[in-house]
């Protein structure tokens, strides 16, 4: 049993070191530098290095061999900051400074209480066999885990609304990465308590948790290729966006003269075919027009009764319809690229939604008229 446990810990050590190295090397493959993403990447690297230290200490001092309760104490002391670092890395991409500070305070207070309970138990028992104090430690640990899962889940839902209205790119892939990655993380968090309390349960659950963490890392690296999406999220806060979905949004208005001026600028922007750029956002449009992002957002909401994303999709949709009829020999890939869609799937989806048919069916229908 001891040799098998040692091999499992050694394998886990090698795995976590490799994950840290992969995250370090991933910087070489991300085309654009984004400060927040880089910060999150280093939080994750720190988490995996801390896990590596944990497994190394387990191998050296044989905590599990000294008793299930001793192993549980050591696991809680390491897994709490690891889970915090990972959840903080996720939140760092999804929310503003106020929420991050709040998350940091809760994490520090929770871990401080765990250390206090552990310290009092150690003083009382003169060893890591801290008796009933372990149950309180376990309760505090589970409370922290639930908090670390709940807050990022809420912010990911809010992020969807931000991206949906303020960017033109294919957000399905971004949302797939985020949701898939965090789902894997949640599954890992659910399985962790089983590895803490029982050595027998450790053998089937530990490899599964490590596998889920690997998939999470792959998803995180993939998010690094969606820098415009990440920038759109942060721009929402820098322009005074809501700190969380629970806070009300203050309604604003612009004068009719100002709205007419903005409309004229938008028409000129469209006539110059500036909408053909694939990775557009409300922020990049505001820079191009010399109008604040907030004012543009108010204009689309109050005077167009839509969002930037829907407005731009309609512009590209009209351009795609014209191009299909003028050049029937063009493939769907060529049409989607020529009209600014980030993928053929976007072109298909908008034709399905607005015409109830595919681009090819639309062409055949109008050719027969």
The total of helices stands at: 15
Spell the H/E element sequence.
HHHHHHHHHHHHHHH
Strand content: under 5%
Give a short account of the largest sheet. Answer: none
Class derived from helix and strand content: mainly alpha
Low-confidence stretches: 239-250
Span between termini = 78 Å
Number of strands: 0
Q: Mean pLDDT across all residues, rounded? A: 82
Q: Give the fraction of residues assigned to helices.
A: over 70%
Estimate the global geometry from the Cα principal axes: elongated
Which radius of gyration do the C-alpha atoms yield?
26 Å
Task: Itemize the secondary structure elements and their pairings.
Blueprint: H1 2-25, H2 35-61, H3 68-94, H4 97-125, H5 133-166, H6 171-197, H7 199-223, H8 227-238, H9 256-271, H10 282-289, H11 293-303, H12 308-326, H13 332-338, H14 344-355, H15 359-367
Helix pairs in contact: 1-2, 1-7, 2-3, 3-4, 3-5, 3-6, 4-5, 5-6, 5-8, 6-7
In words, what does this structure look like?
By secondary structure, this protein is mainly α. The chain has 15 helices and no strands. It has helices at 2-25, 35-61, 68-94, 97-125, 133-166, 171-197, 199-223, 227-238, 256-271, 282-289, 293-303, 308-326, 332-338, 344-355, 359-367. It is elongated and about 80 Å long.
């Amino acid at each position: 049993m001891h040799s098998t446990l040692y091999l499992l810990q050694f394998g886990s050590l090698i795995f976590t070191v490799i994950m840290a190295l992969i995250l370090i090397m991933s910087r070489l493959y991300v085309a654009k530098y984004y400060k927040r993403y880089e910060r999150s990447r280093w939080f994750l690297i720190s988490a995996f290095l801390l896990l590596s230290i944990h497994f190394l200490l387990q191998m050296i001092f044989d905590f599990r061999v000294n008793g299930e309760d001793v192993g549980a104490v050591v696991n809680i002391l390491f897994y709490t900051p690891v889970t915090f670092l990972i959840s903080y890395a996720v939140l760092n991409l999804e929310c503003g400074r106020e929420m991050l500070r709040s998350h940091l305070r809760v994490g520090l207070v929770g871990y401080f209480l765990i250390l206090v309970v552990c310290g009092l138990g150690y003083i009382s028992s003169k060893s890591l066999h801290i008796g009933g104090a372990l149950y309180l430690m376990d309760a505090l640990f589970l409370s922290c885990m639930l908090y670390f899962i709940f807050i990022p889940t809420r912010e990911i839902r809010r992020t969807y609304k931000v991206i949906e209205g303020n960017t033109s790119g294919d957000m399905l892939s971004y949302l797939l990465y985020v949701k898939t990655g965090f789902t894997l993380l949640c599954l890992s968090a659910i399985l962790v308590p089983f590895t803490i309390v029982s050595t027998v349960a450790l053998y089937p659950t530990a490899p599964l948790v490590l596998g889920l963490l690997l998939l999470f890392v792959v998803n995180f690296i993939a998010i690094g290729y969606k820098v415009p999406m990440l920038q759109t999220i942060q721009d929402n806060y820098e322009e005074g966006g809501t700190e969380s979905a629970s806070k009300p949004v203050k309604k604003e208005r612009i004068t009719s003269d100002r709205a007419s001026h903005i409309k004229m600028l938008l028409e000129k922007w469209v006539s110059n075919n500036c909408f053909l750029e694939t990775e557009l956002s409300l922020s990049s449009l505001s820079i191009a027009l010399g109008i604040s992002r907030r004012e543009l957002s108010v204009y689309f909401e109050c005077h167009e009764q839509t969002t930037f994303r829907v407005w731009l999709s309609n512009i590209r949709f009209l351009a795609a319809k014209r191009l299909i009829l003028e050049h029937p020999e063009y493939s769907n890939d060529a049409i989607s690229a020529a009209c600014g869609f980030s993928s053929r799937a976007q072109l298909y989806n908008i034709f399905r939604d607005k015409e109830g048919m595919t681009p090819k069916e639309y062409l055949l229908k109008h050719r027969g008229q």
